[in-house]
Amino acid sequence: MEKIIDTVTIEGVDFTIIEKPKTLYAGFHRVALGFDNEPDFSDTYNRFQKEHTKIIDSITPECRINLSIGYTEWHRKHDVIREAMDCKETTNINQPKDIKVIEAPSCLLIRVKVTDESWTLVEKNMGEKLMPHFFGLMGRLFFTPEQGFTNDGDLEMIYYHSDGTQYVAIPVRKNK
């Protein structure tokens, strides 16, 4: 179960620091064809839309989670093949054969709700309003000596709830 550790408010936008236990993600996965290619996000999305009810024991039934995998390392080294996955959290590692399961270790997450105010902060700090820029924004705001966080892992997460609410999250660790 997630545990809220802290909330940091920057320019009216709340960033929640969460202690997240080991998590199983089950869903539809694609790997890019090479270092210079993007994975097919539209394929994972379309498969999720058609077949998400096959996911067994979802604990996020009203939510589609989009995982971007490998992007942090790709930005650093350019030698990582990136992956995409549209999924749900689950308690069951045993899924139908066409559903991939990824296990993420316990971690801290920084999560922000997508709102008009958070979009304004993205545009101010990143120059344009694109969903992936939320990840860069969180790095710019929190991977500083003052905030004391660094990236922990290579997942970037966007939570799309059925009521239209969206959150963006990244795993982090607190520097000692």
Describe it.
The chain has four helices and ten strands, in the order βββαβαβββααβββ. The chain has one domain: Alpha-Beta Barrel (Multidrug-efflux Transporter 1 Regulator Bmrr, Chain A), CATH 3.20.80. Helices cover 22% and strands 40% of the residues. The longest helix is centred in the first third of the chain and has 11 residues, at 41-51. The protein is globular. The relative contact order is 0.21. The chain has helices at residues 41-51, 71-77, 116-126, 133-142; strands at 3-10, 13-20, 23-31, 63-69, 83-90, 100-104, 107-113, 149-151, 155-161, 166-174. Strands 1, 2, 3, 4, 5, 6, 7, 8, 9 and 10 form a ten-stranded antiparallel β-sheet that branches. α3 crosses α4 (133-142). With 176 residues, it is of the alpha+beta class.
Short recap of the structure:
By secondary structure, this protein is an alpha+beta fold.
